Amino acid sequence: MNTEKEKKSFLENAGVQSVAASLLCIILGLLVGYIVLLFINPAGAGKAITSILKNFLYFPRPAVALEYFGSTLAKTAPLLMCTLSILFAYKVGLFNIGASGQYAVGAGLSLYLALAFQMPWYVCVIAAMIGGGILGGLVGVLKAYLNVNEVIAGIMLNWISLYCVNMLLTNVKESSTTYTAALKTNSPGALIPSLGLDHLFSNNRYVTIAIPLAVIIAVCVWILMEKTKLGYELKATGLNQNAAKYAGMKEKRNMILTMVIAGCLSGIGASFLYLSGIEQWSCAQTAVPAMGFNGIAAAFLGGLNPIGSVFSAFFIQHITSGGSYVDKMVYCSQISDLISAIIIYFCSFVLFFKHCMNQKLKNRKGGKK
Amino acid sequence: MALLLQYTLIYASVLMLVALGGCFSEHSGVINLGLEGVMVMGALGGALVMKFMANLPGAVMILAVLIGSILFGVIYSLLLAVAAINFKADQTLVGTAMNLLGTAAATVLVKAINMAENVNNVSSAIKYIEQKKAFSLVKIGQFELSWFMILAVVILIASHVVLYKTKFGLRLMACGEHPQAADSVGINVYKMRYAGVLISGMLGGIGGIVYITAGVSEWKFENGVAGFGFLALAVMIFGQWKPTLIGLSALLFGLFRALSNVYSGFDVLVALHLPGAVYNMLPYIISLIILALFSRNSKAPKAEGIPYNKGQR
C-alpha cells in the first residue's frame, strides 16, 4: 500500500517523460542531420544548422526579425490544424495520412469561393471545413463499412484531390503565371482580418486572427477528447472496437465521425494559410502539400497532446522556415525536410525511450532499498 | 497500340516487383508502408551507378545498376526492420517516416552532387539518356522489350516457388500467421521477419529503378515516386497476398497507369475531351474502387502489424 501512495518522483511523471522523449527525438534528429551536412560539406555544416535553428533571428534588426517571426507564426497556424487532425484521428486508432488531401481540398474550395464569387472570409473557412470533412468522412466510411486500409485510401485520395484542386483553381489563376490570383487585389473581403494583431509584428499583414483561433481550436480539441462523453467513446472505439461495440457504442459511426472531424481540422488549416494571403496556390503543383506530412511530425513530437502540439507545430515550422536561410551555395533548403523526417523516424522510438527511462528509474529505486 | 502495350508491361513490372516485396514483408508479419521510400532509394542507387559508371558495357551495366538499387533498397529497409522488429515501433509511423525521409534524403544528396559539379546547377535531376539504352532487349516497331520485364516475370515465378514450395517460404508465412506457434517449433521469428523485410527492400529497390527508367531519361528526385509504392500495396491487397494473383492485378493497374502516358494517341479517348489530369487520377481512382470492392474479405496475414514479443503469450 505504502509504495502505491508514495509520491511519484519528478521523472516518473508521464508529462515530463513525454517532453523528455520529444526533446531526445529533436536532439537525435538534429545530430543525424548535422552528420549528413558534414558528409556533404564539412566547412559550412555548423553554420547551416545554426541558421536553421535561428530562422527569423537571422535578421539582426529586431523589427525585421519580429516581422519574420510573425510570418513563421502565420504558417504555424495551418500546420497546427493539420497536426490536430492527425493527432485526433490517431487517438481513435486511425492514421490520417490523408490530411494532405483534405488540406488541398480546403485550399481549393476556400480560394475558389474567394476568387470566383468574392465570398467573405468566414464563408470560405466554413466551405474549406466542409470540404475537408467530406473527404475525411469518405475515408471513414471506406474503413468502417468496407474494411479499406485508411492509409492506402488516404494516399489515393491525396493524389485525386490534388489533381481535382489543380483543375478547379486553374479557373481563377493569374493569366501570366501558374499561381492563383492575389487575394489582396481581387477579393480583399476574403482575407482573414487581423484585428490589430499585425501591429504587434512590425505591421506584418499576414498575422491574422487565424493564429489565436488555431490555438483556441487546439484547446477545444483537448476538451473534446478529455472532458466529454463523445471523446471518451471515440477513444474507447480506438482502443478496442469490439469492446466498444459490446458496450453499446456505435463503433462504425464513431469511426466515421472521427475522420469527419479530422478532415474538418485539416480543411480549416488550409483556409488559414491561403486566406491570410501569405502564399498562393500553384496550379502546376505536382506534389501533395507537405503541410499534412509535417503535421505527422508535429503530432508525434508533441506527444500526441493538443497542447503539446502547439509547441511542436511551432518548432517544426520554425526549422522548415529556417531551411530557407542556409547558404544556398553549399546546401539546399530541403535539409530542413530531411531533419524533420529524421525526427519523425525517431519519434517511433518514443515508447522504447520511455521504457528505458522507467527501467532506469526502477533500478535506481531498487538500489536505494 | 504498341506504346500502350509497352507502357502497360513496364508499369506492370514495377508494380509486380514492389507488390511482391510488400507480399514477402507482410507474410513475415511486418507491414511495409515505407515501400515508397524504398523505391526512391533503390532508384537513387541505380541512378548513381548510371551517373558515375557511365561507360560500362551493356550487360555489366544492367548488373551494376541492379546491384546498386538492391544495395540501397536493402540497406534502407534495415531502418524499418530495426525499428519494427527489435524496437517494436508503430509500423505505420515508421513507414511514413521512411517515405518522407527517402524523398528528402535523395533530394538533398542529388542536389549536393549536382552542386559539387556545377555551383549553378541546383536541380535534383539525374540524366541517364545513353546509359538507359542498355536495358532494351529487342525493339519490334514501336514496341521495346526491356530486360526488366523479363526480370519481373522471373522474380514472379521465383516468388511463387519460394513462398509455397520451400521450407523457408512456409516458415516465413508461419511467422506472419501465428508467430508464437512458429516459435514453439523452433523457428526464429525475428530472423524470419528480418528476411521478409530485407527481401521487400530488395524488390522495392529494383522496382524503383525500373520505374524511373520506364518512360523518361532523367529523374527529378524532388518528386519521389508519386504514390507508386502505395499503388503497389493496392495491387498486393487486390492480389490477396498471392504472387500469381499479384501478377495479374499488376497488369490491370499497369494498364490504367499506362493510359495517362499514351491517351493522346487514341482517337476515341481524345474525342472525349477529358482534361489530362483525369488520366493522371485514373490509377488512383481505380485502385480506390477496387480496394472498396475487395477489402471486405481480405486474406491478410493474421499477425501482420503486431510486433512479436517473445515473452508474451
Largest sheet properties of chain A = none
CATH class of chain A: Mainly Alpha
Overall geometric form of chain B: globular
Structural class, judged by helices and strands of chain A? mainly alpha
Quote the average pLDDT of chain A.
85
What's the total helix number of chain B? 12
Biggest interface: A-B, 48 and 51 residues
Tell me what portion of residues of chain B adopts beta-strand conformation: under 5%
Q: In the CATH scheme, what's the topology name of chain B?
A: ABC transporter involved in vitamin B12 uptake, BtuC
Q: Are there runs of chain B of 5+ residues with pLDDT below 50, and where?
A: none
CATH top level of chain B is: Mainly Alpha
Q: In angstroms, what separates the terminal alpha carbons of chain B?
A: 57 Å
How far is the N terminus from the C terminus of chain A? 16 Å
Structural class of chain B: mainly alpha
Number of helices, where a helix is a run of at least 4 consecutive DSSP H or I residues of chain A = 17
Q: How many strands, what sense, and barrel or not for the largest sheet of chain B?
A: 2 strands, antiparallel
E-strand count of chain B: 4
Describe the structure in your own words.
- The complex is a heterodimer of chains A (369) and B (313).
- With 369 residues, chain A is mainly alpha-helical.
- Chain A has a single domain (65-188, 195-331), classed as ABC transporter involved in vitamin B12 uptake, BtuC (Orthogonal Bundle), CATH 1.10.3470.
- Helices cover 71% and strands 0% of the residues of chain A.
- Chain B is mainly α and 313 residues long.
- Chain B has a single domain, classed as ABC transporter involved in vitamin B12 uptake, BtuC (Orthogonal Bundle).
- Chain B has twelve helices and four strands, in the order ααααβββααααβαααα.
- In chain B, the strands form two sheets. Chain B has a two-stranded antiparallel ribbon. A two-stranded antiparallel ribbon of chain B has the order 2-3.
- The model of chain B has no long low-confidence stretch (mean pLDDT 87).
- The interface between A and B is large, with 48 and 51 residues.
